[in-house]
Amino acid sequence: MYQYLPDLNAALNSTAFSLICCGLWAIKHKRERLHKKLMLSAVVVSAAFLVSYLVYHFRVGSVKFQGEGLIRYVYFAILISHTFLAVVQVPLIAMTVIYGLRDRRDRHRRWARITAPIWLYVSLTGVVVYVMLYRM
């Protein structure tokens, strides 16, 4: 059962990335209700990812990267930045969502300008790490 969780995790990261992109498009086109639905959906999908990720790693443990040479350095550079920003993004997302739900638009916008690129990066590099770890 647990062997399918990395695939699910990559799908959840891809979905979160797509929802965030669509949410950003929606707000740029003044579609606030759609933006809110898309971004809250991205939060739910990211939370589902986190649960699935933790379950997998508690049950399976860590997975060793098999690549050698330059690709190993590339992998670890991506993994380290991904991991650091994944931890940083949690409170950023929380604050951004709180300000949005409270209709504190100025603060929401300020936090979102920091949160969105980090969240996009973490979602995308999560898929890259998956491909490098399980599909190369």
SSE ordering: HHHH
**Residues in β-strands, percent:** under 5%
* Cα shape: elongated
Number of separate helices: 4
Just name the CATH architecture: Up-down Bundle
List the main descriptive attributes of the protein structure presented here.
136 residues; mainly alpha; Four Helix Bundle (Hemerythrin (Met), subunit A); 85% helix; elongated
Molecular structure report:
Helix 1 (5-28) runs antiparallel to helix 2 (32-60), helix 1 (5-28) packs antiparallel against helix 4 and helix 3 runs antiparallel to helix 4 (105-135). This protein has helices spanning 5-28, 32-60, 70-101, 105-135. It has 4 helices and no strands. It has 136 residues and is mostly helical. The chain starts with a helix and ends with a helix. It is 85% helix and 0% strand. It has a single domain, classed as Four Helix Bundle (Hemerythrin (Met), subunit A) (Up-down Bundle), CATH 1.20.120.
Concise structural overview:
With 136 residues, the chain is an all-alpha fold. The protein has 4 helices and no strands. It has one domain: Four Helix Bundle (Hemerythrin (Met), subunit A) (Up-down Bundle), CATH 1.20.120.80.
